[in-house]
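Q: Convert this sequence to structure tokens.
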Amino acid sequence: LVIAGALFGWKKALYSVIFQFVSTNVINVLYRKYQQATLFIVTSVPDEVSSLIYDMTMHGATIIYGRGSYEDESTKSVVYSVVTATQVSKVVNALHEIDPAAFVNVFKSERVSGRFYRIPED
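A:
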């Protein structure tokens, strides 16, 4: 860009920088809705959490029962689900209304195989 600015003028080089910035951000926004994220949610109300995920995203969840070790917790469950990257913040915000003590870990999913989306039943 420095060479182009020197050859063709700084005004054109500045327009090129602005164009690159805008186009990169537009592509990131459009691409984000096709990215998936994996949620690991440690909760004491797994059925409510899995219902919330399904109602908000039409994606299923897997409940793994276990025993927590943080502050000698006796019974905890891990709810595992894959959602789109744009749905993560909505799900996490709604989740904390149901279970304020829930622990959420979000991973970027590289590849998802299988039935990702469930068609709503009427």
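The beta strands are 36-43, 62-66, 76-84, 103-109.
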